[in-house]
Write a structure and sequence with these properties.
9-stranded mixed beta sheet; alpha/beta; hydrolase activity (chains A, B, C, D); homotetramer; Glucose Oxidase, domain 1; about 300 residues
């Protein structure tokens, strides 16, 4: 079995291999320039800071359906330990075991492969248990600070949240941009809100995961045309799930990560941001969403913050 | 045994318990206001982004001397796994086990206690294996984005790095502020550079840890007087180690975390920032240093970024 | 709230504190003597070896209901890694993260406490995050090899498995001993079969855990009278769950572990053993059930084997 | 580069591929028959039980030299937690993260491969991060209970321990068998004592690991000729290290695990057993050394016990 022609047609149109040289490992993060960053700083008006990460806890978004992707398990290794003798200052230390993709996270470019290839044509088997991802590991990413824009698809449609079978289309993105009175610029990081996170926040972990609204296979071309640097949303699967085209699983992953070399983020909590942007009537802000530099990592937890 | 009078004298002068109410769990992070954040954005000039985190890897800064504090151990749980059948898009997933204080990190206010008490007078035994820190866990911290200032103590003295027995004094901080032509303001996050990180980067893990230059027990009053929001530096122990006063171990931890309720950060790599600030002749910038919101965590890895 | 008089009455009758000295940390394992072991060897007839552990895997018996008790998560850290250069002999290494009580396991004596006390009157707060259990940790246990006896309560009653609300009584144990034509002797390790494991093996993890047949609060006296060295069974909770007496949770744990100082084992797979014993018409055997010597551990995975 | 002719010559002579069928996954463990087990029980005389595992702790035998092989890290997830309300019976639970080959352990047959092949000709790439070892994982091993024999090479030579450059030869094994007045039989598990463990027990972790006495590349033929079921010793590397033949690394691993399909064990503490056998003037016993059944595991911690 191989991927269908429909996939390869899009792939050809959005492919960025070689665009920043044969040795490039960071893809569309190249699009964040110093000018972009100055624009991001200029987007700060009131000084409001809105965190976008879910709390890291054992009853997080993972249900066990994705093998090996474990919610954060936090344990104490020391509690008020008087390391230097009785009556001295005491310290507490803790430890965590977690899947790098288990919570609010970035997928590294190496999180997906197809046809034996990673972004920029690297062989998929350059990912090994010993080293992790030799190329395009998350540790290679430059600082992810740029202008952020919220495309609030649900609110633009007057909905609390999109239904589970709604594929977010380019038309939806246009509508949300218009709603937010903004123009997406090169180097922007786009946050797409579906409202699906409300299910998780309301206690329905399984409903949150499946079925899920998410990006349509038609959207990578939209992001490509606008030179977007990265995209994140408020779902577990990122793309519409189950998929639009029968037996074509995870096409948006393959297009963004492998073909375009564009970071994508999942499980971002955009609820408070949605409220704030609506109140402020501004949908652009400085976004800092720094990867933790796991050497060879194919993903990373992230604690993003929007500064309006 | 109990802590000496010298400690309690300082403690009284810097104590912030009750300052933001009896229920406060975030201490000096209260000092970061929207105005502070606007000032931080205004500190961005060229748009240069400088990451301050060490790579997360098994051969990190921990040597085993601090029990239970394990360097990040990264393993792959899936590599190019075609979850939906042969020939489909493949994914790779990874997992980490790590001490929350093992790499570039923030200490939560609950990382230290003395005399059975935590910040704001909470009982130390409210930290449990089951819940972690019930109060002032790292998940309670608001977004840590503010104006950052680099006090480059080593460079101000014309040194590559301070010697291992150098306690950084208030006078050193004044000198570095003058060198950077800056005034520390309320809500600022202060980064103190000793240059000690060069030892680790040069391969000497043991020498990096001990002996180590670091903050003097006299500096908390300096930070307190200026309403600093948080302090981080480029050492393992943060404060001068071994300590200035015999048998008074970790006094700066106790003053910052317990008495003042001020976040402190360790193992920050300030080398590239030092070079950039010297070149730009500016030592102020927007700093984003978001904690990962581990529920009940007494610390967190952090991937800080300075934007100049 | 405190434990009811009904509990304390039994506790007095089965209490072994001081029986083997004030410093004793191993309780009824003292009852396994060299003579017992010779008897165990003499119980081997045909030479059949029957393993009693469940496979260790991520989809094990834990469902997430017991906080922090995680099923074994197995990852590869190296796969066919040619550590000494291309073409050399390659090795594969793996790692596990698991709850010590998550699978087929022994509870150490320190797994339970009540009224602030552990076995032999030790203070409960001698268990710390730093050291684990200072006294009676699982590493203190002598080799657990003795004569094993199967009390096949379900088969003795002509049932596949006991119903979920069946408390196994002393009368049931007598009936099963008679069915097995055996007399329990001092130093024996008793395996009590309910058949509940069939639910887990049949795919019903939740039904396996709750409701569950298990030992009645009346059985500790039966074991005490016979100087049994340890008891294990084929359930998650060991004792009848929910409990027989309203609001008296885990009384058997408290009686066995705290009062008697007797190891107890859970999640043992006794299905194949039941069949073999019925076929051989013998219900006694050599049992080796060695704890892994985790220093300070309050439990341990175990891979028991019955040799008939 | 490929393995030298010297290796392949021996390999041909000891190869067991196909001996127990093309589907066999357990190799020489086939040699333990019911008769063998009866013989093992008959070897029990006095009833002395001697444990052979090192304590599992963070300061175990691993020094960090072998990447990813982490000493056991034990943490408490609950301490005296009154899960059912104040005043109820409390429980403590713990968790471990550890390398399966980090302490006293068995190598599964899949721990080594060469020339792209595993035991019985299976492809090496059947080991994956997702499944671990699809064939010959440690979970496939039948119960490892058999007659054990101690070949006390050091004591037979009148030495406390063999020097670091001593390769244990077939002649050494003969000498030790004669010293123990025993004949190795088919299905026996052979324990070879070098005394090297004294270095670790004496606090010299690095000296324990390197240089190390161990089995010569000439010994696999000796074990093969005697139909030995498994071999373990008291060193980190099992075989003489550095190796006898320049650039031929880990040949004994390849011969035992890949060619013969024979389990091998490392880091076994044979000191107390050596003393006991010398006192009892018997070097044969019942040995129980049950693998923990990690599904797909290429190794396992083991807590062996000798019963004399």
């Amino acid at each position: 079995m191989s991927l269908p022609a429909a996939f390869h047609d899009i792939a050809k149109r959005v492919n960025n291999w070689g665009r920043w040289g044969d040795d490039d490992e960071i893809g569309t993060l190249n699009l964040i320039t110093e000018e972009t960053v100055r624009g991001a700083a200029a987007a700060v008006r009131g000084g409001l800071r809105i965190p976008l990460a879910l709390p890291l806890r054992q009853d997080g978004v993972q249900t066990g359906v994705i093998p090996g992707r474990v919610n954060p398990l936090h344990t104490m290794v020391q509690i008020n330990q008087e390391l230097f003798g009785p009556g001295t200052v005491a310290t507490s230390d803790d430890m965590v075991t977690m899947g790098l993709q288990s919570a609010t996270h970035w997928d590294a470019l190496t999180h997906a492969s197809h046809s034996g290839r990673l972004y920029n044509g690297r062989r998929a088997d350059t990912i090994t248990p010993h080293e992790g991802a030799r190329f395009s590991g998350i540790d290679k990413a430059p600082p992810v600070v740029s202008r952020g824009v919220l495309l609030d698809v649900a609110r633009a449609k007057g909905l609390d949240r999109l239904p589970g079978d709604h594929a977010v289309t380019p038309e939806d993105l246009d509508e949300a941009a218009e709603f937010g009175r903004l123009t997406v610029r090169g180097g922007d990081i786009v946050l797409v809100r579906t409202g699906q996170m409300q299910l998780f926040l309301g206690g329905d972990r399984h409903g949150y995961g499946y079925p899920s609204p998410g990006l349509s296979v038609r959207t990578p071309e939209w992001f490509h045309a606008r030179d977007v640097a990265a995209v994140a949303n408020d779902t577990l699967t990122f793309e519409i799930f189950p998929p639009e085209i029968e037996n074509l699983w995870l096409p948006v992953h393959a297009l963004h990560l492998v073909e375009m070399g564009m970071l994508q983020g999942q499980n971002w909590n955009l609820e408070a941001l949605s409220t704030a942007c609506a109140q402020e009537q501004r949908h652009t802000f400085l976004l800092s969403a720094m990867p933790e530099p796991f050497v060879g990592g194919t993903g990373t937890p992230v604690a993003p913050v929007a500064v309006l």
